[in-house]
Write a structure and sequence with these properties.
By secondary structure, the protein is α+β, with helices and mostly antiparallel strands. It is about 25% helix and about 30% strand. The chain has one domain. A four-stranded mixed beta sheet has the order 2-7-8-9, with no helix packed on it. A three-stranded antiparallel beta sheet has the order 4-3-5, with no helix packed on it.
């Protein structure tokens, strides 16, 4: 019985419990983050809006933009001669699903979904993140967007730019928190396993 309890304790130490996306894990902190589109100025005949299931919509300009952290929004490209903000606001007043369905049926949607930047350990020097997007192609049917670069800014004021090699993997950064907590947990887990093994051998 004691052996089972010890194994359960190790499992709890090594496997984090599932928590709500709105709850920050102890020992974690959030960082400032946003997205930008580097070549939005190359498409003056379009209006770009960001929308999702838990937000309304926002016009994307050359400035950095952000969104509710649990949203996974898309960007839509609307020709200026078809953009009617009064109509969009009316659809939104009837429910965000109505707005999303209208946009889905009438305008090209970005081929990637956007995600909020996650949390980092409290002793991590990371302070600010800017993810740069680039429009690869845009016409009445397709809207191709890539993540081109990410800029990490640290508490000491230094920054570094990293190029995306894969769209689904954040480029590694040079400065990170020292994984002291993980080392301690690993040592405790190894010691517990060794203790259990000795008891089973007796």
């Amino acid at each position: 019985m004691k052996g089972r309890l010890a194994i359960l304790l190790i499992f709890i130490l090594l496997v984090p419990s599932a928590v709500s996306a709105d709850v920050m894990m102890p020992g974690q902190k959030s960082v400032s983050w946003c997205y930008e589109i580097s070549n939005i100025g190359d498409y003056p005949d379009y209006v770009f809006i960001i929308t999702g299931h838990v937000i309304g919509y926002e016009i994307v300009k050359e400035d950095c933009f952000t969104f509710y952290k649990n949203a996974q929004p898309y960007i839509y490209a609307i020709a200026k001669n078809e953009f009617n903000e009064t109509e969009l606001s009316g659809l939104l007043s009837e429910g965000v699903e109505n707005l999303n369905n209208y946009l889905e049926q009438n305008f090209p949607k970005s081929d990637i979904t956007l995600e909020a930047f996650g949390t980092v350990p409290e002793d991590d020097p990371l302070k600010d993140v800017v993810i740069t997007l680039q429009i690869r192609s845009l016409d009445e049917n397709t809207f191709d967007v890539d993540k081109s670069m990410i800029t990490y800014t640290y508490a000491d004021g230094t920054s570094e730019e990293k190029v995306f090699q894969r769209q689904d993997v954040l480029p590694d950064r040079s400065k990170k928190a020292f994984p002291f907590l993980y080392i301690v947990i690993s040592v405790i887990a190894i010691a517990a396993i060794a203790l259990i093994s000795r008891k089973f051998r007796k």
